[in-house]
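Example record for the data management plan.
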Amino acid sequence: MPDNTPLVQLLQALGGGVAGGLTRTLVQPLDVIKIRFQMQVEPVGKHGYESKYQGLLHAFRSIYKEEGLRGIWRGHNSGQVLSITYAVVQFWSYEQLRVKAHKMPFFDDRPLLLYFVCGGLAGCLGTVAAQPFDVIRTQVVAADPTSKRSRMSSLRGVHFVHSTEGLRGLSRGLVFTLAQIFPLVGANFLIYKYLNALVLFIVKKSNPDHNIPGLCLFVNGALAGVSSKLLVYPADLMKKRMQLHGFHQDRQTFGRNPICPTAKQCFMTTLKGEGISGFYKGVSPTLLKSGLSSAFYFTFYDYINRYVIHPVQDREEQRLKEEKAKSAAPKKAGWT
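Corresponding structural encoding:
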């Protein structure tokens, strides 16, 4: 498998960015609900009468009533910067890692392991690149609607957090993020590719072009997103709570604030105060969001791959073959 040309790599990065941006626009409301649930110390449910949010529909109604339609999409701009940055780096690095791995007999003979390792590493690279924007997005969504922090732009937010807390503030929760992102994204790619292979095996006789129907791509992406997210959800909750540390004064209307200056203290206070179920607060909107995100994410990118990147890639490979053939052809007599 030849290395991707610079033009193909550029299209892979742009394709990832487009897929990430479109997906973020569609699932942002669920991300808002997820973060609000994760930050709520009080129980989520009808039994929690003093809780700010008592369920998915109740949360939607409450946010819309108090903050309007803008509240449902709060943090969308910072979320877009996060999603596009992450997706550009993730899909670009995955494609390059996959090409390199196919050249190694160990991984070439173990395609599922290849998908897992390349996907996990690509997810980690994308996470490191997007981490500062993830911190800002979390703080914008979790802050009181009337606070200045809730209206921070991505770049202004990065400057503000860096000036008040330094690099430590921008990287808050990164260890937890990386701990969850490698198995999460690795499993996401593995499950998605495996399900796609099953679909191709079933329909191969009636599908000579090996093009998987869009509905199958969507369903496979959703299944991959839900199953992989279940594996790492507690780490995601603790990461979000650690990113909350340092701006409790901007969260006066949401009830008690979780105490999470360090990973150990976050784990112990959550376990002691909320029990095991505390680590799964917000899991319902999270799984719904993860399923839809992964479904849209992979479907958008695969369609861009099919109709834009692959045709260009085929032309580039053909051009390189022709150039190689010309350079290897014997020189005609009389020419120097």
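Summary line stored alongside the record: The mean pLDDT is 85.
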